[in-house]
Amino acid sequence: MKAAAVSFGQFCQAFRTIVRQALEGGGPPRDLSRLRWLFAPNLLSFGYALRTTLSSLIALGIALWWELGSPQWAALTVWMVAQGTRGKSIAKARWHMFGMVVGMLCAFILVGSMPQSPLLYIFWLAAGIGGFCFVGTLLPGPASMTNYRIHGMRASGFTYAIIALDGAAAPDQIFHIAMARVTYITLGIVVETTISSLFQYRLGLRARNRLATNFVQALDGAVPALVRLLGGDRRAVANSPDVFTTIVGLSDQVEFAEVEMGEHQHEGDHARAALAAIAVLMSRGLDLGALLSMPESQGKDYLQVAEQVAGFLKTIPQRLTDESPVAPVLRDLTALRATCTQLAATCLEQEMIAATNPPIDATQESSLSREGQLLHKLGAILDELQQAIEQFEMSRNPKPHDHFRYPMRSYRDWRMAFTNSLRASVTIFASGVIWIATGWTDGLTFMMFVSIVCALFSTLEQPALATQAFLHGTICIVGMSGLLDLWVIAQPTVYETLALCLAVPMLVGGLAFAWPPLALAAVAYNLFLPILIGPMNQGRMDEILFFNTALPLFLAMIFSMWMYRLFLPFDPDGLRWDLRVSILRRLRRLAQHRAPPPMTEVVGRGVDGFVRLASMTTGDGNTYVRDQYVSGVLSGMTIELNLLRLQGILARNILPDAARHATQAMMNRMQQFSGRYGGQYGRTARAADLAVEYLSRMEQAETNLSVREEMLRVLASLHVIAAELKENRAFFDASSPYLDRAFT
């Protein structure tokens, strides 16, 4: 008893200590940063959650007032099209309306063609959604949830599924079913668009300011890498992959600013061109980094002007952020460009003197030649920077009657489109077979949810990860809806009380969607909340109806995630290998291309491949393989650009015949380059080295100034190609498919 009393006394003392620490704020600090989105959201996130909650409740109230059969679809549509900015919301609403019309027409055709053939009906339903996924994968823009062109195809599959599956039970009522679904969707879009327009102020001005801010942000990310490069770190640009990802992300946001501006003078086209010029600027930096590997290339003149350029670059973001005109910036830039040109001409003049006045100092001549190549590349960097700033100024201060166009680029991957289509079709067809084979009463609901998931996520590169996040949101909303259905919403008898009960859960979902780590889970939460609540004029969602809806929903999420992991799963090694093979194929085609593509397309394809590579998060810890592929993709883009320059030089026909033949021999060898089996890589790299060695000797003996200058351009490109092939042998020597030599 005494021991028990002592133990009880110790427990009471410990309990009092814990309570006192809690009241006085003592004890170790608690990390609540993960919940900051809920208890301390920023103003924009709270505004989005508030206006979307109001829009959803208004749409639901109107649908109940009109006594529509399934009013929850109106509230669901609001959450599906609502976005953080006005431009995104309008763009998504437009494509959603387009997808709704396409899906409705396809559902009419399906139900009218085979209402009495269940298996064939399910097959064509699955094939239709797979076809939408196929088309969506080929549309311009990244394979992300914010690509609203792809969302149009997602909406087509979504509408096609819900109308066709509802019409399967009553094919003679398909017109009324379709019109009801179209009414819900249109009502949700109209309400959301109207309410969100009331929360906007000076929309056009803010959109133009955002375009300017995006350019400065991209330039602010590129400047540190270029400054390190000019300081001697030749891998500075290659080790700054986030810059390219930022450029692509900001370019995709331009179209939403164009929507917000309404009537505009091609400011968006100039903004896209300015961001593309920054990408080309970074590719020029890759060239300069490759040339820095040449011995005795950084002479006194280059180091001096490189220091001046680095100092100028550090000031550019701040000078462009101010409202002051860009004329002084362009004037300083022109002066630096003139200095580079003058110093390059001086190097060439001194090289000619050293080559024509004996005794000839071959070492000095070679050093001057290499320094001149560096100065030429530095001048090219300044040229691209000038073009970027000029385009930025035209986007900020548009001119009347401007007809400049710079459309979004599309880089299609037919193999990925077929894979996404097949994956979605097989998953939906398998769910239909389960429904038919088991005779499950709620199998139709199960299949509908599977179709919705496949329509939404099959166009993503990693649908299994997206479905996993969707499953987490589904679990949360099943618990929340169970609490609301079985306890809270059983009491209200008027719509106003129902709206008050739903306001807080909807507001929480809106805040979660505005926080990026929870965005996908919040999409499931917001979409399925109206479905699991199931508001009706003539009844309530009881426990039987709730469980008969929640169970198919939960099982559909599990089944979809399982199928995405089982059938054609995400294979990072295979995708990386496909990307690698496509780069080698482009090198071969570019070396023999008589009508070469523009430089912007080469840079765009390279950056697009790099962004796809950066999105392949596998969590397997293979940092060596990832880094080698990142470096290889950027290196492949650099070699492609220099092959373009060599083709331009050969087309001018200024080189002597011997130098032309040596350059063409390297190009011919590149036409056979596949990287396989080691030997072809070795022969290609050796051909580049031999061309550099041969043209270096010819350049030292050349006395014609214009020919020598042209040969210096050839040598600069050949030096870059040879250096990149040597630096990234692990990538270009494709005898080891997945770089697994690193683990032996």
Automatic annotation (TrEMBL):
GO molecular function, one term: transmembrane transporter activity
UniProtKB keywords: Membrane, Transmembrane, Transmembrane helix
Name this polypeptide is given: Putative membrane protein YccC
Pfam families the UniProt entry points to: FUSC (PF04632)
One Gene Ontology cellular component: plasma membrane
Membrane-crossing residue ranges in chain numbering: 46-66, 95-113, 119-139, 182-201, 417-437, 443-460, 469-490, 510-533, 545-564
